[in-house]
Each structure stands twice: as structure tokens, then as C-alpha cells.
Automatic annotation (TrEMBL):
This is Lysophospholipase L1-like esterase. Residues 43-245 form the SGNH hydrolase-type esterase domain. The lineage of its organism: Bacteria, Bacillati, Actinomycetota, Actinomycetes, Propionibacteriales. GO terms for molecular function: phosphatidylcholine lysophospholipase activity. InterPro entries: Ester_Hydrolysis_Enzymes, SGNH_hydro, SGNH_hydro_sf. Gene3D superfamilies: SGNH hydrolase (3.40.50.1110).
């Protein structure tokens, strides 16, 4: 009986040790310590951020490379862009997804591109020229509310540490260039452009009301000599040149020097 109890006790000790080791491995894979001085970039957003139809590294990684070259410091980029993501979906991820929460808590630079998909249900109405401003009023109002909540949630996850938040607008919330010329009516192209400007205004206002920076993507795209040369064949997403342009504009908007990175003593 005594031997049996001893064997049982020993088994429990071994089980506890294995569990502790396993738990430590799990925690280390989620909560990764970063060397002091490293820059951690997290990119949040939709298919533009994720690099859909680009077959390239997408602008977040390009931006990280440029930032590394500028500051001569290690830069890690975590691209969490998801095709089809809208502002409501991103807010839910910030509230419920552990991976997203941990990534933001670690990141002292946040790239945010969100809002175009909020109007996806009205694509045909807008691009055919049949949509008046009121047809997207509910979605626009929800976007403005969500943007404020998204920024607030980011600050909460960062525990109000110094954080550089760069919020991009859009060159177009729908298609552009030669593809839009072929597929949309003239009035539809005007309506799409007006909705884009309105969306960018909402993003700009949210950034201005917060400790964030609005990054104008509309001007460098629309004022280029040939916007089609910046777009993938679908006319809806940037190609390699378009992503590089976004990265360049983001770098120009990045403070130099950056606020003190997380996990740095001092």
C-alpha cells in the first residue's frame, strides 16, 4: 500500500513538471520577449494590408525594411491584414482575438488601413451612379464610431505606452484606373471618388481626435501619371509599385526618432 502511494505521488510530481514545461512553451510562443531597442510593427487592416493579388511582400514589410534602413535598428513586422475585413470585424478581433491582442501589446508602431469594406454592400449602387449620399449614411456613421473605438482599444492594449499609429486613407474604396473606366459608368466613377473622399475624411478626423497620424494615400495615387501602373490587374488592389509607394509615404509620416520602444530599460 505504501509503495503504491509512493508511486502515485511520484507520478503526480512528474505530471506537474511536464504540465509546467508544456505551459511554459505555450506562453513563450505567445508572449515573446523582444530585445531592448527593437522596433515592433503590427499592421491591421483589409486586403490592401494583406497584399491580395500583389504577389509581393506587401507594404507593411516594405515599410519595415525602409524603417530599418532609416533608423539602423532591428525591425520586426507582424502583418495581420485580412482580406474582406471591415471596421466592425477589426473591432471584434481587437476585443476577442488573443493573437491580435498580444501583437498590439508588443508593437510600438501600428499601421491601420480599414474602412473600404464597410461600403461593400452598396458597391453596385455607387458604381452605377444610382446611390445618393444617404444610401451609405448608416455605414458611414458606424465607421466613424468604430474608428474611435478601434483607436481606444489599441491604446488600452498598449497600456498607454508611447505608440506611433499611422492610419492610411484610400486612393479609392472601389476599383480605379483602366478597370474602373471599363466597368463603371461616368457617374459611378464620380460617386466612387466622392465616397472615397468622405471615407478618408472620417479616417482623418479619427486620427486628429486621437494620438494618431493620418497618412494621405489618395493624393500620391490619384496624382500619379498613370494610376493603372500602381494597381494589380483587378484594378482593386495595389501591385508591387503601389505597395512600395504606400510604404514610402508611411515612412515619410513616421516620427524620427520614434518614441521609445517597449521593453527598453531606462
Amino acid at each position: 500500500m505504501i509503495q503504491t502511494l509512493r508511486r502515485l505521488a511520484l507520478g503526480l510530481v512528474v505530471l506537474a513538471v511536464v504540465t509546467a514545461i508544456s505551459g511554459a512553451d505555450t506562453m513563450s510562443s505567445v508572449f515573446r520577449p523582444h530585445p531592448a531597442g527593437d522596433v515592433q510593427v503590427v499592421a491591421l487592416g483589409d486586403s490592401v494590408t494583406s497584399g491580395t493579388n500583389c504577389n509581393c511582400s506587401a507594404f507593411p514589410q516594405m515599410y519595415g525594411d525602409l524603417l530599418h534602413d532609416r533608423d539602423r535598428t532591428p525591425v520586426t513586422v507582424n502583418n495581420l491584414g485580412v482580406g474582406g475585413m471591415d471596421s466592425t470585424g477589426l473591432l471584434q478581433a481587437l476585443d476577442q482575438d488573443d493573437t491580435t491582442q498580444v501583437a498590439i501589446s508588443d508593437a510600438n508602431v501600428v499601421l491601420l488601413t480599414i474602412g473600404a469594406n464597410d461600403f461593400g454592400d452598396h458597391h453596385d449602387d455607387v458604381t452605377s451612379g444610382q446611390c445618393v449620399a444617404d444610401c451609405v449614411s448608416d455605414e458611414y456613421e458606424q465607421l466613424t464610431v468604430n474608428l474611435d473605438k478601434i483607436l481606444s482599444r489599441i491604446h488600452t492594449l498598449r497600456k498607454n505606452q508611447p505608440t506611433t499609429i499611422l492610419m492610411t486613407g484610400y486612393w479609392n474604396v472601389f476599383k480605379d484606373g483602366d478597370v474602373a473606366e471599363r466597368q463603371y459608368t461616368a457617374s459611378g466613377r464620380v460617386a466612387s471618388n466622392q465616397l472615397t473622399l468622405r471615407t478618408n475624411a472620417a479616417i482623418n478626423a479619427a486620427a486628429a481626435a486621437d494620438d494618431a497620424t493620418y497618412v494621405d494615400i489618395y493624393t500620391p495615387f490619384e496624382h500619379s501619371s498613370n494610376i493603372t501602373s500602381l494597381l494589380a490587374p483587378d484594378g482593386d488592389h495595389p501591385n508591387t509599385a503601389g505597395h512600395q509607394l504606400i510604404a514610402n509615404v508611411l515612412l515619410a509620416a513616421t516620427p524620427n526618432p520614434l518614441p521609445k520602444p517597449p521593453h527598453q530599460g531606462g
